[in-house]
Amino acid sequence: MSTSPSPASSASARTVSDDSLSLLGKPAATPLGYQSWALYEWARNPYVILITIYVFAPYFSSKVVGDPVEGQALLGFANTVSGFIIACAAPFLGAIADKSGRRKPWIAAYVAIMVPAIFALWWAEPNGGGIGINTTLILIIIIAIALEFSSVFHNAMLPSVAPRSKIGLISGLAIAYGNVASVGMMAFVLIAFALPGVVDWSWIPEGTLWGLDQSTSEDDRVVAPLAAVWLLVFCVPLLLFTPDGQTEGVPIRQAVRQGLADVLVTVKALKHYANVAKYLAARMLFNDGLVGILIFGGVYVAGVFDWGTIELLIFGLVTSVFAALGGFIGGKVDDALGSKRTLFVAIGGTSFLLAVMLTVGPDSIIGIPVTPGEKVWDVPYFSTLPELIYLANNQVFGIFVTIGFASARSMMARLVPPTLATQFFGLYALSGTATAFLAPALVSLFTTAFDSQRAGFGSLMILLVAGFVGLMFVREEQATVAGQPPTT
């Protein structure tokens, strides 16, 4: 004869479920396991910050190519090529990995590709010397593809690694770790390589570390070997301590065939996964807006305030501190409110703060005229009131953007069938690259049409608002595998 569980035993069962089980209904990783998973962002994020945003990409455009306009066009072409390959291959690779059951060997393989490729960027010398422009672009494409593919498998581990009650916290923790690592690396690059010989401060060395020659841009190029070694060292905890999926004993050829077939089955069952598809469509829009802000934010502020490399590095360093704070805050808010509500807060806050940023310039603050160039304190950088207000606004902005990225990932983990996590995170990668042209196209179109950098940067609001509206039609509930009954 069956008996009903007592309220106390039911509460105990819920506690066990929330605190020790993953979304797969199996034991989640230990704190060492999921902290090691989060540390992979610590390993990879300095590459993104130092190479693709603040140091190497501007160096490539202005000094390797020698023409910022042509350099930006070449980098845009490289991103288009890598994005197309990622969009085509990521869902299939994810499905193959779901069949084989293992993710860490794939991550290790991509790290093995990235480390030497990143290191080799050291030999991209000014005026097309060293490895030359074309080889540098090929390396950038290879790194971008490997980095995104590794992210597919890393993201797909989240549903099995995180306790279901902490999935938002751990996703946010990973992004926070990435930003903290970037803060440390940018501070090191500033003090060791960028500022020596430029400022007369007692705590700045007179010469660059290791005697690097600034006249041949060794101070710019050194970020490549630094990022490569950093990635190699700090990917180790993930590979050693984070539990992986169990191998299904499927031969690789069979896993490939079944994985490809599963993607086609998933596409045919799109009606069953309509809620996930709605989310991917909404995420595609607001993610393009967020990424566009990161890509063009430095270009915009450099044009508005005429900031150089040192100002941008300091700007990025301070912003990364607050972005790390956003990762910690966002994870807790995500677990408390749910991913969908947290995304509404993040996207709405980002949109409002972007609007505020657009009203701040050298001669006005929110429409109030100020005297251009008038200093409010005697320091070499960020000395005017508009610069300080822009800097302060951007810190809150960084918090909201980070919350958006973290909750977008945890939302996906909450929606997809856990047994198909890697395949769906392949589609997640696809949604992040399929329309990657939208943000650059909007910025270019509005900048040209209105002959205004402000109008171009502000056009990204369209993507944020469209994604916000699309998110309204998404339900925060986990999908079942097509053809299987829902679990109770």
Verbal overview:
The chain has 488 residues and is mainly alpha-helical. 72% of the residues lie in helices and 2% in strands. It has 20 helices and 5 strands. The chain has a 3-stranded antiparallel beta sheet with strand order 3-4-5. A two-stranded antiparallel sheet has the order 1-2. Helix 6 packs across helix 17, helix 13 runs antiparallel to helix 16 and helix 14 packs antiparallel against helix 15. It is globular, with a radius of gyration of 23 Å. The N terminus is likely disordered.
Would you spell out the secondary-structure blueprint of this structure?
Blueprint: H1 7-20, H2 31-54, H3 56-64, H4 68-100, H5 104-120, E1 124-125, E2 129-130, H6 132-156, H7 158-161, H8 167-194, H9 218-221, H10 223-234, H11 236-241, H12 252-268, H13 274-305, H14 309-337, H15 339-358, E3 360-361, E4 364-365, E5 368-369, H16 385-415, H17 421-433, H18 438-450, H19 453-458, H20 460-471
Helix pairs in contact: 2-8, 2-10, 3-4, 4-6, 4-12, 4-17, 5-6, 5-10, 6-17, 8-14, 8-16, 13-16, 13-17, 13-20, 14-15, 14-16, 15-16, 15-20
Helix-and-strand structural type: mainly alpha
Order of helices and strands: HHHHHEEHHHHHHHHHHEEEHHHHH
**Beta-strand share of residues:** under 5%
Q: Which term fits the overall shape?
A: globular
CA distance, first residue to last residue: 21 Å
CATH domain class name: Mainly Alpha
Question: Mean pLDDT, rounded to whole units?
Answer: 81
The tally of domains stands at 1
**What percentage of residues falls in helices of 4 or more residues?**
over 70%
Give the tally of β-strands.
5
| Arrangement of strands in the largest sheet | 3-4-5
User: Could you give a short account of the major beta sheet?
Assistant: 3 strands, antiparallel
DSSP helical segment count: 20
CATH topology: Growth Hormone, Chain: A
User: Are there runs of 5+ residues with pLDDT below 50, and where?
Assistant: 1-17
Q: Which value, in Å, is the CA radius of gyration?
A: 23 Å
Second rung of CATH, namely the architecture? Up-down Bundle
